[in-house]
């Protein structure tokens, strides 16, 4: 893809977010666009940075560590969000690089974060991933286990949880999954909802998404 195409993709996504916000009677500022740059090299990311986008998502710690430091140095104030699974042995590296982690999904990871975060001195926003479709191949806590896990994150591991993240099953309508995620967030006093990807971010905004994770609609096919 040429840089013009990435800038066009970003502009089209921005326009659609603005439209979805108007329809839902929400402020545009209540939705953060995370441009998901996984698998794309620095030369594909540069035009999106040049267009003013400052929040990016990556799904692998090693990949992000390899390509982002020079880009971050050139564009201070850029935020990186980890949206993929995190192994406990990579937690230290993750909290050093990322501003948010959307994949808190098990006690061992919560425990590791509870140790690594105070030691790092960094403020990292945390999202608990909920496996709303209860798909065996997908990460995340089951909906019926979410309340207990969130409580344990707070009380046992001293974590501040900001919100929830979900990835609806590819072959189902996303709306019920967004609704269930919003409901779990509400009853746990969580204000942030990371939901919606290229195919369904407008629907997610209708259901209260505060963070949409959009990759292919900006960067093209992976
Ligand atoms: C890759 C990925 C996205 C972006 O998906 P697109 O369909 O390309 O927008 C969003 N969220 C997660 C967790 C991802 O892994």
TrEMBL record:
Gene3D superfamilies: Alanine racemase
Domain Alanine racemase N-terminal: 17-221
Tree of life domain: Bacteria
Molecular-function GO term, any one: pyridoxal phosphate binding
Key words, A-Z: Pyridoxal phosphate
N6-(pyridoxal phosphate)lysine modified-residue sites: 38
Keyword Metal-binding set for record: no
Cofactor(s) in the UniProt record: pyridoxal 5'-phosphate
Signal sequence, renumbered to the chain: none
Matching HAMAP family: PLP_homeostasis
Primary role: Pyridoxal 5'-phosphate (PLP)-binding protein, which is involved in PLP homeostasis.
PANTHER family the record matches: PROLINE SYNTHETASE CO-TRANSCRIBED BACTERIAL HOMOLOG PROTEIN, PYRIDOXAL PHOSPHATE HOMEOSTASIS PROTEIN
UniProt family annotation: Belongs to the pyridoxal phosphate-binding protein YggS/PROSC family.
Protein's UniProt name: Pyridoxal phosphate homeostasis protein
């Amino acid at each position: 893809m040429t840089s013009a195409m990435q800038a066009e993709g970003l502009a089209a996504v921005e326009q659609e977010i603005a439209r979805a916000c108007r329809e839902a009677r929400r402020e545009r500022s209540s939705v953060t666009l995370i441009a998901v740059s996984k698998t794309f090299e620095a030369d594909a990311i540069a035009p999106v940075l040049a267009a003013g986008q400052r929040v990016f998502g990556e799904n692998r710690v090693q990949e992000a560590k390899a390509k982002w430091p020079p880009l971050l140095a050139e564009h201070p104030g850029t935020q990186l969000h980890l949206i993929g699974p995190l192994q406990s042995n990579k937690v230290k590296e993750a909290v050093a690089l990322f501003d948010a982690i959307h994949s808190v999904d098990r006690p061992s990871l919560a425990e590791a974060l509870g140790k690594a975060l105070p030691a790092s001195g960094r403020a990292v926003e945390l999202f608990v991933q909920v496996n709303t479709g209860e798909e065996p191949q997908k990460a995340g806590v089951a909906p019926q286990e979410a309340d207990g896990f969130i409580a344990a994150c707070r009380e046992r591991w001293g974590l501040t949880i900001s919100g929830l993240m979900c990835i609806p099953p590819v072959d189902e309508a996303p709306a019920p999954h967004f609704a269930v995620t919003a409901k779990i967030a509400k009853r746990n006093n969580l204000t942030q909802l990371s939901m919606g990807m290229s195919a369904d971010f407008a629907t997610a905004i209708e259901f209260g998404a505060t963070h949409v994770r959009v990759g292919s609609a900006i960067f093209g096919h992976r």
